Amino acid sequence: MRKRDPRIYTRLTHPLVRDSRDEPFRQAGWDEALSRAAAGLRAARGAFGLFSCARATNEMNYVAQKFARVVMGTNNVDSCNRTCHAPSVAGLSAAFGSGGGTSSYAEVEETDLVVMWGSNARFAHPIFFQHVLKGIRNGARMYAVDPRRTSTAEWAEGWLGLNVGTDIPMAHAIGREIIHAGLANHAFIRRATSGFEQYARLVEPWTLSLAEKVTGVPASAIRELAHAYARAERAQLCWTLGITEHHNGTDNVRALINLSLLTGHVGRHGSGLQPLRGQNNVQGGGDMGAIPNRLPGFQDILDPDARTKFESAWDTVIEPHYGLNLTEMFEAMEEGTLKAVYCIGENPAQSEADSEQAVRRLRALDFLVVQDIFLTRTAELADVVLPATAGWAETEGTTTNSERRVQRVRAAVTPPGEAREDIDILRDLAARLGHEWKYADSEAVWNELRSLSPDHYGMTYARLEEEQGIQWPCPDPTRLEPTYLHGRLWADDPAERGRRAPFGLVRHDPPVDLTDETYPIRLTTGRRLDSYNTGVQSGGFASPLRRGEYVELCPEDAERHGVVVGEEVRVSSRRGSVLAPVWVDTALRPGLAFMTMHFPDDVDTNRLTIEANCPIAGTAEFKASAIRIDKLPAVTVRS
């Protein structure tokens, strides 16, 4: 097997500019770089988009979305939330009016049942998984629903290895069984939900036997999970990208939420819904308004009162319509209606589905500014590159994790060279475009956010430090709210209960990229414990666990193709092909392959994935591509 050397990304320490697209970068001073950036963005006003960063602080995301809306006059702002958990936000918002997970991590330790659905949390969310293990040690039972028998599933009492893209049939069959077994919580359903009768009719055809045929999971296993979930006093339903990264990701999320509404497993301590976020601040980025449809504090742009409040505070006029999300911005690049992008801390050239198409679209822009800590593949396409500080070690501010906990982060080391804080760069660029923002420090930004977001008003820096972090909502500086959301649904007073949570009437829709004789294998993608996203930050560090990128096959498929561990093969989809060595994994079933996005400079897995997007959330179907494996011809060595 050929030994592969990972690309090592070096830290950006000085601004870079190029005099034309055909010329290489040259080092520039900050004055020249900011002047060039301002000129390029000014020329594109009305055809501009901003990509914000889920690894940077809340304060940076707040200023970034303000830059888009005030300086550039657009709601075209989004982040990698679109790539992963936008369906979770959309689904939770549709059901409860709020896009955050409903429980705290501590509640997972104190629950009776944990369902990990489409989540290899032991690898992808190892810190959260420690809380799960504490729950198991405290007596909780765990079930894993996943096409692969993952490292997480090894800890489960039951593993339901469903076929990729059959989550809705599985959820509907569980719901039907709960109803038919007389285990539905009808008191809660009457009190707090709407649409139950329609939901019951919707799931009625999904018998256990039909679900077994469609999902590949034995009927007895589906029944066992249905009864365990419904009978548990407290239950946590957790999911990650195995649910969201589908062309119908929002529908998948709604199907899971339905199960919590059916059983009353929401709005109580120990019972809730947990979408597990992959970046340190993907929750906070959305909370700060770095999304196209919400202002900071998750306030709807279409709400005239919300707009008036922000317009008064910012001395501007906010466009009274939703902006383009990340997916729509890439489509607008193709159409030529989006001409400039300011990309902060994101690497869409390698993280987007169908990566060759993504690169082509980025190249078509008139102007691209990238603000980052490394010269990523996306930065290599830019006209101006601005060196920033690392949000987790060189910056003051806050971040928000998956349990909605806002926590302080502090500068521990001095940034190298001329690298500058993101907020300072944004402030200076705004000034060159006619907007003087006087922020003395990150705390001044946070206090402005607090004045505009009721959910964050009670969180001063001093209080965040004193409390070791606070979960939103926190509207009162003298009181802490319960660790779980939506307790109102259990109130006796209808006025206090407020809006009922509707059942989601969603239907099964198989993966777009169908397998056939030419592309007979289903490829699903995910993360490994030793690496992080596109490998820009983790690739430069050795790990005893890391073995680079492989296409993982089950023993039967490896034997059928006549390949062995380490042998390089061609992996092809309807969009492109890559060369990758083989790894054999007994956790996979025949017809299922697995790859990651961690080593795109070596094996660009996203050349294979399909840009089939959820129409509600815009997330692509990374989890369900059709591929084939071709054995390479033997190489003859001449003596």
How is this structure best described in words?
The longest helix is centred in the middle third of the chain and has 15 residues, at 249-263. The chain is globular and about 70 Å long. The strands form seven sheets. It has a seven-stranded mixed β-sheet. Helix 3 (86-96) packs across helix 13 (249-263). Helix content is 33%, strand content 17%. The two termini are 20 Å apart. The chain is built from 23 helices and 27 strands. The chain has 639 residues and is an alpha/beta fold.
Shape: globular
Strand content: 15-25%
Structural class: alpha/beta
Instruction: Give the uncertain stretches in residue-range form.
Output: none
Number of strands: 27
What is the CA–CA distance across the termini? 20 Å
Most strands sheet: 7 strands, mixed
- State the helix count: 23
Question: Order of strands across the widest beta sheet?
Answer: 2-1-15-14-13-3-4
Report Rg.
24 Å
Percent helix? 25-40%
Write down the overall mean pLDDT.
Answer: 93
Write the layout of secondary structure elements.
Layout: E1 16-17, E2 26-27, H1 30-43, E3 48-51, H2 58-71, E4 77-78, H3 86-96, H4 105-109, E5 113-117, H5 121-124, H6 126-137, E6 141-145, E7 158-160, H7 167-180, H8 186-192, E8 193-194, H9 196-203, H10 208-215, H11 219-231, E9 235-239, H12 241-244, H13 249-263, E10 272-275, H14 282-287, E11 294-295, E12 299-300, H15 304-314, H16 326-335, E13 340-344, H17 348-351, H18 355-363, E14 367-372, E15 384-387, E16 397-400, E17 405-409, H19 422-432, H20 442-452, H21 461-467, E18 470-471, H22 494-497, E19 501-502, E20 521-526, E21 551-553, H23 555-561, E22 568-572, E23 577-584, E24 592-596, E25 610-613, E26 620-621, E27 625-631
Parallel strand pairs: 3-4, 3-13, 5-6, 5-9, 6-7, 8-19, 9-10, 13-14, 14-15, 20-24, 21-23
Antiparallel strand pairs: 1-2, 1-15, 11-12, 16-17, 17-18, 20-27, 22-23, 22-27, 25-26
